[in-house]
Design brief:
The radius of gyration is 46 Å and the shape is elongated. It is 58% helix and 13% strand. It has 663 residues and is an alpha/beta fold.
Length: 663
């Protein structure tokens, strides 16, 4: 089966009738590439296909009605899908919702209309349910998630080591095992009905067990309904969160943070701003009191050196003026009161020593002549030096570190204001910021609560299902105690034999299907993975569907030990393996499959997966995923390409043939 044409009108940003043709490839296979920036409507397009096939609740449709049309009172959505079956029959499925001429229409006013046309002949309204069942058999809803998937489905499979176990029911539906199991359950149900209808039941325990079984099944049904409601509420809160996030990104051109981060950022901004004001006031005070002295402080070094030079020059002059007296005193000090040497100097030697000392004192220490600018006395020089030391120890020199701190605070303040995005915003923008933050926080809290509530419900459901099975087993044992007629005994035995045969067939079928699934999955994994040379084998447990990967040495590699890219490659390989093993010839629709992959894994996906994914492949991509280089590599396989363009001013999505660079 393949998709030939899709028409959307009034759904989300597709305000006007938009038609996309999907031409067939030259050799049967075809890849159709649809480009679009984030928010252009790629996901909406994939949603429209699913809704057209299976329908949707009025509340969901009402929320998806184009806002401009709804504002005009036109509550109308129409989606048409043209399919070509394997026997070349053309099936047209058109599903529409309308509230008619009701003023201010609500979700409850929407009426659904389904039209099915086969080979040009419209099916009568009386056969609507029959054709709905036909569509479901043609494209089983339980397995479309493995043929129509996006990055979130890949992330779900790649999430942890046991994600396949949680998908067991869906995997069995995709492999065709679910139908055999359902047939076996139906046979056992018939057996129980026949046995209950023809065996006289008089045992009180049996009646009690039947009543208990009814109560437990009623509880089970209520819990399933509650789970569906919680799941719907969880989906609604996720949608609210994403809508608020998109509005935030559009308004502030950045990713939103938590309110705690925003508050902490704003608190720090206020602290920095307050400290900056304090530093500026301190600088002003110091400047008023000490700035002249601080400017003069630059001259203190020269002034101190001049004073020392003049003091040394004065001392030298004093020595030269009193040289004769000093020389005479020094020479007398050699002999008096006692001679320093063993022999007393003769008068001639004493006179010679005195002349030498006199010459030395008059020549001085070789200090050049210093020009006396200050001409201070020793006492005045000491007072000046002391005053300079007092000034250097005062607060005037705190101005420099304060100026440094001021510059650092100004830089940090600019960064904080840029991060908060509302530092210089208007009051309206601040209110919008707070409103969107509050909406996202509220939705996020509700998502956490509903997720936990859903987990608890799943545990309760498992316990109830186990209890129902136990009671049914007890009832079966009680029925065995009653005598039945030969005819009914034979019939019951035949039912048991058929059920056992079907169970044996299920085990073998599961084993064969799982073996084929692991072969196909491993085949694609080796094509796509950059570590394929390190992997020896990939084994899927036929009972739990848990996947084990082993290296060349036989050691098990946990999926959690793989890189994020390798996990996604594994998920894509499993999806491809399911499509091949199910033997269902359905189109593959992939929404933004490359956004989380590195260049090496993107190359593998583009060159090895897309051309082999299926007979018909529809890729929804941004310009950074399938860029110019990847587009050239895919071009030989393309049957066509188009682009979704979103006009922000008009809030309108239109489709045009040709990819980004061809349009």
């Amino acid at each position: 089966m393949r998709i030939k044409r899709l028409t959307i009108e009034g759904y989300k940003s597709f305000q006007y009738e938009t038609t996309i043709e999907f031409p067939a490839g030259a050799e049967g296979k075809s890849i159709f590439l649809i480009g679009g920036m984030n928010g252009a409507g790629k996901t909406s397009l994939m949603e429209a296909i699913t809704i057209c096939l299976y329908g949707a609740k009025p509340d969901l449709i009402y929320k998806a009605i184009n806002r401009k049309e709804l504002a005009r009172g036109n509550a109308h959505v129409a989606i048409e899908l043209v399919l070509e079956t394997d026997d070349l029959a053309e099936i047209v499925v058109k599903r529409s919702w309308s509230a008619g001429t009701v003023p201010e229409p609500k979700a409850k006013d929407l009426e659904e209309k389904l039209v099915v046309v086969r080979d040009g002949k419209r099916v009568s309204v009386q056969n609507k349910q029959m054709w709905q069942d036909f569509i479901r058999s043609l494209v089983p809803p339980g397995i479309t998630q493995f043929f129509f998937f996006d990055g979130e489905k890949i992330q779900e499979i790649a999430a942890d080591d046991h994600s396949e176990v949680r998908l067991q029911a869906s995997l069995e539906a995709a492999l065709g095992i679910e139908y055999v199991k359902r047939l076996a359950d139906d046979v056992l149900h018939i057996k129980n009905q026949e046995r209950q209808g023809f065996v006289e039941i008089s045992d009180e325990d049996l009646e009690f067990k039947q009543s208990e079984l009814k109560k437990e099944k009623s509880k089970l049904e209520r819990k399933r309904k509650e789970r569906a409601e919680v799941q719907q509420a969880l989906d609604d809160f996720k949608e609210q969160y994403e809508e608020a996030k998109k509005r935030f990104q559009a308004a502030f051109q950045s990713e939103p943070g938590t309110r705690e981060e925003a508050r902490a950022n704003e608190k720090r901004r206020i602290q920095v701003s307050t400290r900056l004001g304090q530093v500026e006031n301190e600088i002003k005070t110091l400047a008023e009191q000490f700035l002249p002295l601080g400017i003069a402080g630059k001259l203190f070094g020269d002034l101190r050196r001049q004073i020392e030079a003049e003091r040394e020059s004065s001392q030298q002059e004093a020595i030269r003026e009193n040289a004769e007296a000093l020389a005479h005193q020094i020479v007398r000090a050699v002999e008096e009161p006692e001679p320093i040497y063993h022999e007393r100097l003769t008068p001639e030697k004493m006179a010679e020593l005195e002349r030498r000392i006199l010459r030395l004192l008059k020549e001085g220490a070789g200090i050049g002549e210093v020009k006396k600018l200050l001409n201070l006395s020793e006492r005045e020089a000491a007072r000046v030096l002391h005053r300079m030391e007092e000034i250097e120890g005062s607060e005037v020199f705190l101005i420099a570190p304060l100026l440094d701190e001021k510059r650092e605070l100004e830089v940090e303040l600019r960064r904080l204001e840029a991060a908060s995005q509302i530092g210089a915003a208007s009051e309206t923008e601040r209110e919008l910021f707070e409103q969107l933050q509050e909406e996202m926080e509220s939705a996020s809290n509700q998502i956490g609560r509903k997720t936990e509530q859903l987990r608890l419900l799943e545990e309760e459901l498992l316990a109830l299902e186990k209890r129902v099975q136990e009671i049914e087993a007890e009832i079966a044992r009680l029925y065995d105690k009653h005598n039945v007629s030969k005819e009914k005994a034979d019939f019951i035995n035949e039912c048991d034999a058929i059920a056992n045969l079907l169970n044996q067939f299920t085990v073998r079928l599961r084993k064969n299907k799982v073996h084929l699934l692991q072969e196909k999955t491993f085949e694609m994994y080796k094509r796509l993975s950059s570590k394929s040379g390190l992997i020896k084998d990939l084994v899927i447990d036929p009972k739990t569907y848990e996947v084990k990967i082993r290296d060349r040495n036989g050691h098990e590699i946990k999926k959690s030990g793989l890189s994020a890219g390798e996990k996604e490659i594994f998920a894509v390989s499993l999806l491809w393996g399911l499509a091949q093993t199910s033997q269902l010839d359905l189109p593959i629709i992939i929404d933004t499959p490359l956004s989380r992959l590195d260049s090496a894994h993107r190359n593998s996906i583009v060159n090895n997966y897309f051309p082999n994914a299926g007979e018909q492949v529809v890729i929804l991509s941004t310009d950074t995923e399938v860029d110019g280089a990847y587009y050239e590599e895919l071009k030989p396989y393309l049957s066509g390409a188009g682009i979704l363009e979103f006009d922000q001013r008009r809030e309108l999505t239109t489709f045009h043939p040709g990819y980004f660079w061809e349009h």
